Amino acid sequence: MRNENRNKISKQIQELPEDARRFCFLIENIDEFEAQNWLTQISLVLPRIHAVMEVIDHANNRAECFFALSDIDERFELFCHLKKSLGEKDGYEVGEELIHNELYGSLSEDLADLYFEIKRGLDIINCGQENLSVALNLWRDGFFLHWGQHLIDAERHLYHLRVHHQI
């Protein structure tokens, strides 16, 4: 049984770069998709990435920490493009108890932050498959220090859109 679990975990980790590529492809090509289909595809790939991040946390020790933010101007440019493309499906309320305070989240912001962190790991892997462990460490550390909350918020908002038949 333990061997089966190890094999399953190993398979999930090996599939992560492909899921990451799929996510980045969707972000980079948002204009090539019908909005509903694009949101559906994003809502399917994010949970796969999330599940593996939990596995990586338990599979690796945290001896080192790799994390750095990318160019703020590039992030803002992508955020604006996503926001324009998503339109009214972009914003969401943050917590029911905060409704009167009018605090809102943005799917565009979440996805832009996810994109740059995930893309950074892919760029490392593209320099050589031997760099997979470095990319996994970067993703793991970034997940817990920064983009994990964006992933959870994006998944929550996409779930809300699906439940309300908006995707």
From TrEMBL:
InterPro entries recorded: DUF5063 (IPR032025), DUF5063_sf (IPR038312)
Protein's UniProt name: DUF5063 domain-containing protein
Lineage, highest ranks first: Bacteria, Pseudomonadati, Pseudomonadota, Gammaproteobacteria, Thiotrichales
